[in-house]
Amino acid sequence: MDLIQSDLWDDRSGVHTKIKSVSDQTQCNYEEISSLRAENAQLRRELDLLRSVVIKMDRPKVKRDQIILGDGSVYQEEVPLIQNSDALQITPDEIQRLDEIPIKSTEPVVQDGSEFSAVGAKVQSIEDVRNVYRKVCVDPYAASANSRILVYRIQRADNGQTVENYNDDDEHGAGRRLLRYMQENSIINTVVVVKRWMGNGHIGPKRFTIMESLVNQIANDLDSE
To answer: Average pLDDT for residues 47-69, to the nearest whole number?
Structure first.
């Protein structure tokens, strides 16, 4: 009996000591495996993040005038973006003709250092849109704006098709947002150019609400004629 108890409970060589040793090793191995799994998961997250960064850096920024269509031709804007250098090429006679185009304008709205205003007109064709846009771009004060966001919708008289488009002029997301606003409010045969002079303050999404209110004001003024 004493021999059996010694085999079972001896502190150095007893069975319970050996079982405890195995248990400790098992616990140690479990903790190591858990630690390795956690490290592996963290490495995977870091790798995914790195992959996203690399993809973003490698992604080319394609401008609309660089898009190649299926037939091999280059996409052409119906109303190309007008830079100040382009406006300087418009002749005095052309400017005088543009001055005769009737438009509606809003009062400026100032928010957190940024200033907004809008100009709009009733239009029946893409050529009308081009002329209103050019009229805005040759104005010296409008030329100083950071962005001149163009948005328009036309219903063609011959087939009833709606022609609509926008140009953000580096105000990312603004043109799409304003076009959707015009669609939802059934604003048609109208072109609006929203001008923004940026201040030092960060205005955030509030800028879209201001722009939409200016489009609404132009549409109401045009409808009241």
So the answer is: 48
